[in-house]
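Q: I'm building a small set of examples for a reading group on sequence design. Run inverse folding on the following structure and report the sequence directly after it, with nothing in between.
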């Protein structure tokens, strides 16, 4: 919850050029994604490239430039 404003700023900066998917680890889908991408705690931010491969991981939202490959 504390990172919600930063996450919303990232979404606004990205517009329709990239997407932010919020997943609760308390749901069946969240548990399946957690198993696939090896995470059990939140917050966790994982960037995937167009092929679905992980390219970055961190506990704070990345900068829009990182997501878009501009920085």
């Amino acid at each position: 919850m504390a990172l919600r404003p930063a996450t919303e700023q990232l979404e606004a900066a990205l517009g329709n050029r990239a997407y932010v998917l919020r997943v609760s680890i308390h749901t069946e889908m969240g548990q399946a994604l957690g198993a696939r991408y090896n995470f059990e705690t939140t917050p966790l931010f994982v960037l995937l490239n167009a092929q679905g491969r992980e390219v970055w991981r961190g506990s704070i939202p990345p900068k829009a430039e990182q997501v878009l490959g501009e920085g």
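The beta strands are 45-48, 54-58.
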